[in-house]
């Protein structure tokens, strides 16, 4: 892998950038792999990278129906944080944040992890109770998260309206300083490049149409638009499409797929220093390094694979943003888009073996799996390689829905992203 | 925005040349639920319950709107509630139904003027013009459930629960002012 | 914003009058006590989530208040049909027409 | 100042001068001008700076597709907006315009050093660097990158303007009022079809406004246009100008934004700045026209280089000659007409440079006749001029070889690379595109929506063709709606049609690797960047877009997408249809947040529900708290009291004498019918069959997963009638859940549900004197322990008002809830208040209610439970009817984890040092363990208790019910607090105080 650094950039600029190598080759499928990963999002590409790097398994293909990173990895609002309530979640997401810290160097690709702080706004007594519960739990779990008064919130995030007369007055907030954002596309590209450099095949524009199983029930490979590909193990991280893919192996999951919309404003000079989230009104906002305000919305009410989304939801999201940040009323929306997110009943992911031998699944990230990309990919690779979960993902089983042992972050606090 | 808080004192409402909003006089309201053969209930009420959602019927001072396949809203003079309730109650054994007095639950706003229908488009996503005169619908006005009665081409009534009325009236007031400015 | 035909009101109306109510024809067993943990898990959580025609429920919340069933294509979001609760589940072939 | 206004040309009103400022300097324009046309009329081309390299830029277009001429506009305090397209903003007296993304000034900008470092800042350069030294990212690199962000500056003040919205239903919506749209409107406006015609421009007409030489039906085009518009109005067509169709949503819902005041010198009263229209149309006709493509060559971005069609529009519509000595550079016939028009308006066109080796004879003929030099088979390889183009370097191309250059001095370059249909809204429908090899462009193909495309939007050339196509589409749509339309298109004279070829970057004799041939002007994406992206493995057009940011600027690729595609396809060696376009998404042009939020601001952002007592509480100075949509009186501070003091006093008053509380927000559902009891048995955990008429019972509602969802007291008013109460926040949810089970699972039950939340307002009286106060006012019930014991209910008269009286207590004191019809609630309240004076009656709020109930161990669903708590966890196994065959949640409760040992149980906590715990604080058994600690629960409720004499708390603790008396620890940041586990009832466990 050709190194990326300032010197190489300078060197190439002298030759008109004519000699940069491809970041990943356009691979065609081979007949057989040790592991086939379905879905070249951050999670799938990351798992391939860690399989190769940490488990020495390099005969791996990552197969995507479209272009790599074109799923939710390429369309999310990039909020990264780990201040989750339950021990299981805190461990998983904090593991991920640990990996984020060094990801650019690890991959030799600047993913621009920006620790600008995530501020979650409290508007009611109930919010305060819930956020304090998170803060105390995080502290005892070694996860940073602290309480700010309304005044401190304003100081941290000057565009904030903290008038007590607001319909949803800000009464305080929970701040995780090491939280922030990253360049979403760079995460997919960085993992793809680093995985490809270790021998992983990345096969794009190749929908997986079925998972095949042998007479003993074990997976034997995948049917794809480019033919059958034999595989000793198949790992699915197809986000919104997971149910569709898993159904072909006879595995039914507790998932529903919903459209989730996001939007950006026209770019402006730096005005918004952090990430702010208000679950009470469903508004998530940060400013990208290019200058757009990046704004997240809620899911549409019905399941869908259409990536289209409705206007009323956008109206509501924008109303929420202008309610909390009234100075943005004259800003303009530049573009809105949608992704398809797979949601579990407890809003926590599944990273696990399945009842089918040789078949693994990483799904159910709903509206908030970008932040988990490195951590989840890392433990998923472990699970695939060793055929047993890493201690961090051991609680995120499929069985929990049968026993009732949910990891119900949603019920605990109605917190998204 | 505090105007209609207790909802029962007629507050000044917008009076524009093109659309007006006013508070209707109090009326008794009963929600009737029943299914199957309605003949006995019709007889007890003295009015034939319409069976198509959105259709209305009236007899004497009773006005009925069919809200759902087994649901009707009755408007009647407050003095008649006792008698109507009693005659229905007598049928409970033979004709199971539910009659609930909700007279105090909501208020009625009257909306008229040449651009009354357009005023309603501020909050109604459905095609208001398409509701035939003499019919009514339960619908949503800016996400608030309301019952909309169409009394004439440019005359409507809107039943709104008390606590939602200030919001609805506030939007209508804004709309009246906008329409007046547009017409000017 | 979708347009939805309410089979009770017999009108096609904007989505804002309706609420989505999940997959249809998920039957709650007559005798839940007889259900295994797996069966109860299926009832509570396991959903078909298809890409394509989906049997689902809606409620005409701001209208007649009825829950009803629908078949909607989750790729296009188009409704193939809506029908009253309790009505038999329409065959897909009858909805999609002859595609040969 | 130099004037480039051409007398007698254009539709602007020369007799109405308008003055505005640009970067503080005053300029004159005339009514009808945009900022761009007015500045151009003053000879000013330099209007902006590009994003990355800060290159000086002028307008390249005359419409909403403009990427370069973005400015800030201001109208006094609070009314500033960045990134306004100068080509769209109309001028008015006093408008303040400022340039952006420059320091210290537009003509001298320090940021332009980036331009010098051009070779370093190649596509995606930031992914390759800024990684070392490791610690520099946070401190040095990122702050540096972030400072470079953005174009204009964000507004910093609250917006004083208002915004509006309406819904609109029509049979036919036509987007675009050019010839195609006008003709479609005429054809569709038959037999009462409701037709709406919208155009983003200040006036309808589209291209017709730029083609004054035409004759239609024998009349000068503008006369025809005026009369056609009045005919359409007379036919009932709703014509909306300054109205942009921003997005095409499901099932023919189209969002429009109408600009109402941005063009006015004075703001009219009661008029919103913008209005969002949600249009639902039976059919949609997209007649959006086509957008001209720039040519991609080294130096194609200097001020003065603009689209030929734009120059024509500036001349013919605004009466402005954009250059005295223009060069026309084209690969398409249409630019020749621009050359002719400018020449005819007094310009001296220096040359028409066409990349094609041959062109139509009539064009050559006319050029010759007008004395315009022509260079066929030429390329452009460079331009010069810093703040305005000074010359164009052109070379002949023969057999693919670029010959010797000549330099043509000029003051404008008018370019055309051909046209591309406006596919944006069509693409929003997820409609399929088809590649048209002849025009080398995508054309609209299939869509699932009821939508047709007319005119230039589907690749048709010429006004006649547009009119005919519009009329045909209009007739088709009318036919689809069951109407017969016979409208025919009028005849056009003087129509100028043309063809052309598509170019990728123009061939050059210079080092292509160093060329600044821009594809996306605003984002400074060059052809070289696109090729680099492909070379680096970005083989999907979506990757190319994201790696280079091509098409991601505020024009959303209107000018750059098709050029970008052609270049990428060339680099990939694949045909364009295999490469494909990136997705167009809403909005069509950037849309203000204000319009999208419209009415939902301030009080209307989310409505606030208030009870009939609310005004009284407000008058008393109550503090309020939001609960769901409601606002409730939180506490009633007296002068000088803080919350704690007020609550302490209110608590004492209730326990000491009597308190009055507004409980009107409680949800209420009337359950009526012969099967009412069966229904209640199935919904709630509790048994109901044996509950006598006139009695009430606490009910617990679970989900089918076994977890607590809601609770409330339920009274049986008659064998077949229950008065159910729910939590304030749960009312709608519970009713929905009940309807769901009733309609879906048990449709055979003869029972009906009616919400009576707002029928009844509820006034609660609690305290040892409650019965004494109330008894004299009650008729029909004897308020004695024997006749009306705790948990009784009755219909009666209170203070002369019809009432439903419940004897219940959420405080542990003798308690009554008096329900009266809402209109009478204030009357009741005032009477009780007056009668209560002799007992020192005290109004209390939700906080006191919370304290008093916690002292009795009553839970608040949502505070002491959180969606993971079962009745057994909450210590309420007593409320579960174990012998019932089924109820909602029964099976769920039997799942393995819900019957597991060591679940978290609700218990009481008393701190050993008497300090008050913080709600949400976490609990551990072993305080000395390292982090991460093993947590075993958390504090759910915590208050100072006047009655207990120390703070009390409720908490969920692992196995808590088996740990009575044990010590747990609550580690806080500064210290660890020890607490003893107790039962949940802190006051009067025997309930002696409930007795009258
Ligand atoms: C609008 C939006 C905002 C969000 N905001 C945030 C946020 O702020 N913070 C956060 O942490 N998370 C956020 N998320 C969630 C986050 O984006 C996802 O959880 C995460 O990116 C999932 O990554 P993934 O790799 O699992 O899935 P994806 O990136 O979606 O990758 C799955 C891949 O599988 C491929 N695939 C599917 N089916 C097949 C098939 N049959 N054959 C082959 N390939 C297939 C898809 O093409 C896709 O590329 C947001 C999501 C959206 C949509
Ligand atoms: N086929 C071609 O490539 C081509 C190229 C250039 C010009 N033309 C000429 O264009 C004319 C065709 O007329 P036409 O009616 O098809 O197009 P037109 O350009 O005359 O009219 C389209 C109108 O739609 C408006 N519009 C576009 N998007 C909009 C939106 N989202 N919301 C509101 N308004 C919007 C435009 O501002 C314009 O006023 C003929 O004169 C033809 O010669 C054709
Ligand atoms: C964090 C983030 C920032 C974005 N910024 C821009 C932007 O500045 N301009 C733009 O046109 N699109 C921007 N997009 C949106 C993408 O163009 C695109 O809409 C998104 O990746 C979804 O892909 P699709 O619209 O092609 O389906 C951004 C997306 C994300 C996730
Ligand atoms: Zn209905």
Automatic annotation (TrEMBL), chain A:
It is an enzyme of class 1 (oxidoreductase). Transmembrane segments: none annotated. One of its GO terms (cellular component) is cytoplasm. Its EC number is 1.5.3.24. It is found in: Cytoplasm. Keywords: Cytoplasm, FAD, Flavoprotein, FMN, Nucleotide-binding, Oxidoreductase. Its cofactor is FAD; FMN. One of its GO terms (biological process) is tetrahydrofolate metabolic process. The keyword Ribosomal protein does not apply. GO terms for molecular function: nucleotide binding; sarcosine oxidase activity. Pfam families: DAO. InterPro entries: FAD-dep_OxRdtase, FAD/NAD-bd_sf, Rhodanese-like_dom, SoxB. Residues 35-79 form the Rhodanese domain. It catalyses: sarcosine + O2 + H2O = formaldehyde + glycine + H2O2; sarcosine + (6S)-5,6,7,8-tetrahydrofolate + O2 = (6R)-5,10-methylene-5,6,7,8-tetrahydrofolate + glycine + H2O2. Belongs to the SoxB family. PANTHER family: FAD-DEPENDENT OXIDOREDUCTASE DOMAIN-CONTAINING PROTEIN 1 (PTHR13847:SF287), SARCOSINE DEHYDROGENASE-RELATED (PTHR13847). This is Sarcosine oxidase subunit beta.
From TrEMBL, chain B:
One of its GO terms (biological process) is sarcosine catabolic process. SUPFAM superfamilies: Folate-binding domain. Pfam families: SoxG (PF04268). InterPro entries: SoxG, SoxG_het, TrmE/GcvT-like. GO terms for molecular function: sarcosine oxidase activity. This is Sarcosine oxidase subunit gamma. It comes from Paracoccus salipaludis.
Automatic annotation (TrEMBL), chain C:
InterPro entries: SoxD (IPR006279), SoxD_sf (IPR038561). GO terms for molecular function: sarcosine oxidase activity. It holds the Pfam family SoxD. One of its GO terms (biological process) is tetrahydrofolate metabolic process. It comes from the Bacteria. It comes from Paracoccus salipaludis. Gene3D superfamilies: Folate-binding superfamily. This is Sarcosine oxidase subunit delta.
UniProtKB/TrEMBL annotation, chain D:
Keywords: Oxidoreductase. It holds the Pfam family GCV_T_C. The keyword Metal-binding does not apply. InterPro entries: 2Fe-2S-bd_N, BFD-like_2Fe2S-bd_dom_sf, FAD/NAD-bd_sf, GcvT/YgfZ/DmdA, GcvT/YgfZ_C, GcvT_C, GCVT_N, Sarcosine_oxidase_asu. The keyword Nucleotidyltransferase does not apply. GO terms for molecular function: sarcosine oxidase activity. Belongs to the GcvT family. Residues 904-988 form the Aminomethyltransferase C-terminal domain. Residues 516-597 form the SoxA A3 domain. This is Sarcosine oxidase subunit alpha. One of its GO terms (biological process) is tetrahydrofolate metabolic process. Residues 57-79 are annotated as: Disordered. NCBIfam families: soxA (TIGR01372). It comes from Paracoccus salipaludis.
